[in-house]
């Protein structure tokens, strides 16, 4: 039953992706950013889908099983507050600049803002390096899920191959438009199935109040944060969702918006969507302790699958498999497309063709690179160690600590390329240091204080940007005028104002 | 952003951030509507965030972006 439902689901995903090609306009802007035509509702769903991973279903319930309700405050409500704020302050401005100046990647913006090809290359390497573990997690997560849900009938590489094959078909064929159409479908599946699984299981347990009362009697520690999370951990963890400001795939999704006003429903509904997906996962994870009292950290990640097998087998188990694949693929496809876009635009087009490249050639190269990224990711997944999952968690820290770079680019005229370089290098050095420190210590915090490493790396990144910018020369007035046109003045006056600042 | 809503809504975002660090319920397991108060509060916080962002889109949206 599970396999039949999963196969039907994947066939539907392929059909939607292939059908989207009927609306393809044949331009590179259409292939890379859907011709910047995405309206409010689709933007909300595609941004949410691109940001959520399978962790919001399986990982969240597993963590809640082990650590209790604090997982929601740590990972969900912090995102509900911070992510829409980043969309508002950063996303809308990136969209406006992207539309005005034709940007397709984050590197194009940073390179032009600070007049530096070298800085562009540095940020390209760092962003791709931090994204690669995520790509591997997507492929390996798909493999592990299929193996688990079919009781070992298929080895993990089969699930990985299925994820890569399906994503390659609709992403290379349909580009960003195909990716968004599929994202919308998959996110709606994810939202619906999460609620359905929650309703059915809680119903079988006699209702939420009765089930929670049983946990309160048996495992009261799971209903509080004392003993599981340090208050400083909660405070500093709030920095982690800032990573959304430097994720290349989120950046590229911002550029697809039809207008700045298209962001409005995303701001309003994003916190609600977070609660709708995460709260059921966390509650089911906590309730599972009554049925499965003694699972270790590894087995805890499959707690949702176990709960469904126990309380609602058959159809729902199959639908959950589809939901997990939806969660894996709707972030994986956006990540793959953004990597393909960056290779095409930032390396081949800019450095290979000096920005003179025909529309059709850009699309062809984009397709080849996207397919190439998928093939390479799949091959690495065959030999990669499972410790890649640990590295993936650390990558959030890296992206979050790079956040000062995008803030300085958009809001601080006096920031310089050397400030951005110093900020980025400080992140590379400190991130590497903390990864080595915390590699064998789950729940590592700085010197055991409860402060997450992101707190330190972020503050140093800000300090490096500010101090080095102040002692180095700002960009030319003409460049600043492109990014900070003064209200009610002519372009020439803006240049003069920027010249005085310099 | 437009004054005076800009200041008010910025303050509201800061208040939400402060409320997010709800140490006063750190070891309170009281059930509210079937949920532990520490979880119910954070679900409600998501609703409050939605409301503040709705006000931002209505009262403090930067028109010069288009």
Polypeptide structure, described:
The complex is a heterodimer of chains A (502) and B (66). Chain A contains 22 helices and no strands. Chain A is mainly α. The model of chain A is unreliable at 490-495 and 497-502 (pLDDT under 50). Chain B has helices at 5-20, 37-59, and strands spanning 31-32, 35-36. In chain B, helix 1 (5-20) runs antiparallel to helix 2. The longest helix of chain B has 23 residues, at 37-59. Chain B is elongated, with a radius of gyration of 15 Å.
Summary of the model, kept short:
Chain A is an all-alpha fold and 502 residues long. In chain A, 75% of the residues lie in helices and 0% in strands. Chain B has a two-stranded antiparallel ribbon.
The number of distinct β-strands of chain A equals 0
Radius of gyration of chain A: 23 Å
The backbone outline of chain A, from C-alpha atoms, is globular
The most extensive contact between chains is: A-B, 47 and 33 residues
Strand proportion of chain A, as a percent range, falls in under 5%
Identify low-pLDDT runs of chain B. none
Judged by helices, strands and strand pairing, the structural class of chain B is: mainly alpha
Strand order of the largest sheet of chain B: 1-2
Helix % of chain B is 55-70%
**Count, helices of chain B:** 2
Number of strands of chain B: 2
Structural class of chain A: mainly alpha
- Distance between the amino and carboxyl termini of chain B: 14 Å
Q: Average the pLDDT over all residues of chain B and give the rounded result.
A: 93
Main pleated sheet of chain A: none
Pick out the low-confidence regions of chain A. Answer: 490-495, 497-502
Mean pLDDT score of chain A, rounded? 90
Q: In which range does the helix fraction of chain A lie?
A: over 70%
User: From N to C, what is the helix and strand string of chain B?
Assistant: HEEH
| Overall body shape of chain B | elongated
For this structure, the quaternary state is heterodimer
């Amino acid at each position: 039953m599970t396999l039949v439902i999963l196969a039907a689901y994947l066939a539907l995903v392929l059909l939607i992706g292939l059908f989207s090609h009927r609306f393809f306009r044949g331009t590179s802007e259409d292939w890379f950013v859907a011709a910047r035509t995405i309206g409010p509702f689709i933007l909300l769903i595609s941004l949410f889908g691109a940001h959520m991973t399978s962790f919001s279903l399986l990982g969240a319930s597993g963590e809640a099983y082990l650590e209790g309700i604090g997982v929601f405050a740590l990972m969900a409500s912090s995102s509900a507050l911070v992510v829409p704020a980043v969309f508002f302050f950063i996303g809308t401005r990136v969209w406006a600049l992207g539309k005005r100046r034709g940007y397709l990647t984050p590197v194009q913006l940073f390179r032009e803002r600070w007049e530096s090809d070298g800085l562009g290359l540095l940020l390209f390497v760092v962003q791709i390096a931090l994204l690669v573990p995520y790509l591997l997690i997507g492929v390996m997560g798909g493999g592990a899920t299929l193996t688990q849900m079919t009781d070992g009938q298929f080895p993990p590489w089969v699930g990985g191959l299925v994820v890569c094959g399906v994503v390659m078909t609709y992403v290379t064929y349909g580009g960003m438009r195909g990716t968004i159409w599929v994202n919308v479908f998959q996110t709606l599946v994810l939202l619906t199935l999460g609620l359905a699984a929650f309703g059915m299981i809680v119903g079988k347990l006699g209702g939420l109040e009765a089930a929670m009362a049983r946990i309160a009697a048996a495992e009261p520690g799971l209903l509080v944060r004392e003993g599981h999370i340090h208050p400083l951990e909660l405070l500093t963890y709030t920095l982690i969702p800032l990573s959304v400001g430097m994720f290349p795939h989120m950046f590229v999704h911002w550029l697809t918006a039809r207008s700045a006003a298209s962001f409005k429903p995303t701001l309003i509904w994003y916190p609600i969507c977070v609660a709708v997906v995460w709260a059921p996962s966390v509650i089911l994870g906590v309730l599972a302790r009554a049925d499965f009292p003694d699972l270790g950290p590894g087995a805890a990640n499959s707690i949702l699958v176990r709960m469904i097998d126990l309380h609602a087998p058959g159809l729902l188990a199959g639908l959950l498999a589809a939901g997990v694949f939806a969660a894996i693929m709707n972030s994986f496809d956006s990540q793959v497309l953004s990597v393909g876009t960056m290779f095409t635009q930032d390396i081949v087009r800019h450095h290979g063709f000096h920005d003179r490249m025909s529309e059709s050639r850009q699309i062809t190269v984009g397709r080849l690179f996207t397919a190439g990224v998928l093939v390479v990711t799949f091959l690495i997944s065959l030999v990669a160690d499972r410790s890649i999952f640990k590295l993936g968690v650390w990558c959030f820290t890296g992206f979050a600590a790079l956040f000062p770079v995008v803030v300085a680019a958009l809001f601080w005229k006096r920031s310089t390329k050397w400030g951005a370089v110093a900020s980025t290098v400080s992140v590379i050095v400190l991130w590497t240091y903390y990864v080595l420190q915390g590699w064998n210590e789950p729940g590592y915090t700085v010197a055991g204080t409860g402060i997450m490493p992101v707190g330190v790396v972020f503050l140093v990144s800000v300090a490096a940007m500010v101090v080095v910018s102040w002692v180095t020369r700002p960009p030319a007035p003409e460049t600043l005028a492109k990014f900070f046109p003064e209200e009610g003045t002519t372009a020439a006056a803006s240049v003069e104002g920027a010249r005085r600042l310099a | 952003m437009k004054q005076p809503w800009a200041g008010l809504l910025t303050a509201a975002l800061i208040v939400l951030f402060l409320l997010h660090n709800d140490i006063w319920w750190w070891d309170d397991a009281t059930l509210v509507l079937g949920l532990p108060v520490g979880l119910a509060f954070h679900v409600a916080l998501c609703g409050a965030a939605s409301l503040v962002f709705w006000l931002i889109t209505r009262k403090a949206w930067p028109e010069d972006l288009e």
